[in-house]
Amino acid sequence: MTMNPELLFIDIDGTLFDHAKDAIPESAKEAILSAKSKGHKIFLSTGRPYADIDKEILDFPLDGMIVSCGAVVYVENKPIYCKTYPQDELITLVQFMLDNDIGFSLDGIHKNYLSKEAFICLSSLMFKNNEDSELSRAMMAKNNCFPFEDMKEEDLKAVVKISIFTKNKESCEKLFQRIPESLVGFMYKNNHLDLYNGEISIKGITKATGLKQITSYLNIPIEDTIAIGDSLNDLDILKVAGLSICMGNGADECKKIADFTTKDISDDGLAYALKHFNLAD
């Protein structure tokens, strides 16, 4: 690995933030600051909407971020890309979810709106043990959401992703059968909780979209990028980055396509990876 300045794209949940300890490992903080001091650029790459990113994370010396799985992209504090939901499809899906008691969050550019069903569903799980990082994030961040009933027309136009939280499997399956070709979604059963959750996003928009937008904006070759992640929504960015790193606690699918698998997040995996490639001291 050369010492040319690199663009580092770092996932949050399960990569930077350890939900088992409800904290960012000190080793990760130190490694990121070290990489920054060596001239590398630091970007977040997350499925979280901007409104769900903790102040502690935003206080890092960031050069930008990919949020909502690529639907919104920032360089410094400037938005350079935003892809919002097609309104007809959004309204149709929302009405179906309301009619069938499917809990959902509408993730917007600046605000998130949580349905009553989702709030009840998540509240009932707040104190139960959970090992799924994305679901944990949603559970802890729910207090940053606004009630769906408070949404205005302009808020609907700012929606970039739908998150699903429900115990109603049959209705959820019917919902996913109705997803139009312009959208793509997934759902899964949490192994530890009686809950189904997933996402419905705009087809073709992934974290890789964000990486390409940033490299184009900065006129930097993709070969000078490094992506670090752990979950299925990291697959696309791991495939396109110049160097791809999967956490030891990551999904098997990510490990198969990554150039390097580091240690678990609980074993200082992020810091280990940055030091392994001489990106941090």
From TrEMBL:
GO function terms (MF aspect): magnesium ion binding; phosphatase activity
GO cellular component terms, alphabetically, are: cytosol
Entry-linked SUPFAM superfamilies: HAD-like (SSF56784)
- Its domain of life reads Bacteria
InterPro entries tied to this protein: Cof, HAD-like_sf, HAD-SF_hydro_IIB, HAD_sf
Q: Which NCBIfam families match?
A: Cof-subfamily (TIGR00099), HAD-SF-IIB (TIGR01484)
Protein name, entry field? HAD family phosphatase
Please name the source species. Answer: Holdemanella biformis
